[in-house]
Automatic annotation (TrEMBL):
Taxonomic superkingdom: Bacteria
Stated name of the protein: Paraquat-inducible protein B
InterPro entries, per database record: Mce/MlaD
Domain Mce/MlaD: 6-98
Length: 138
């Protein structure tokens, strides 16, 4: 298995250790760690989420294609992570991976992580939650 980390700047509400990591809905791993990092100077907060991904679960070129065992190779090809809602009833979330070639990679570890970082894509869930918090509740 491969280890990776995704840094989120917003809420990860509903995410839990053991939550599925999927690639376009196909389970390829799970969340194995959730922490909180606070910058002592600015008090800026980010949430590193540790992932375990099955080695070789993502292939390029189909069944006989090359299995990529390097997270940095996939990140260079556009691998991005986003928080996705698993259930409206429970509010549980998971991590979904996808290849988004041409999407800028914003790395937040600044080279300080011991495991490869998968950049977080701004997702529709974040945008929706922001919109919901601005709605007037009468």
């Amino acid at each position: 298995s491969l280890r990776a980390v995704v840094y989120f700047e917003g809420s990860v509400r509903g995410l839990y250790i053991g939550a599925p990591v999927t690639f376009r809905g196909v389970k390829v791993g799970e969340v194995d760690d959730i922490d909180i990092d606070v910058d002592p100077a600015t008090l800026a907060t980010r949430i590193p989420v540790g992932l375990t991904i099955r080695a070789g679960s993502i292939r390029i070129g189909g069944q006989e294609g090359k299995r990529l065992n390097s997270i940095p190779d996939l990140v260079q090809r556009g691998l991005r992570a986003r928080l996705v809602l698993q259930s409206v009833v429970t509010g549980q979330t998971g991590i979904d991976l996808d290849l988004k070639p041409g999407t800028p990679a914003r790395l937040l570890s600044r080279g300080r992580s011991r495991v490869p970082e998968i950049p977080a894509a701004r997702d529709r869930l974040d945008a929706l939650l922001e919109q919901l918090t601005t709605l007037p509740l009468n």
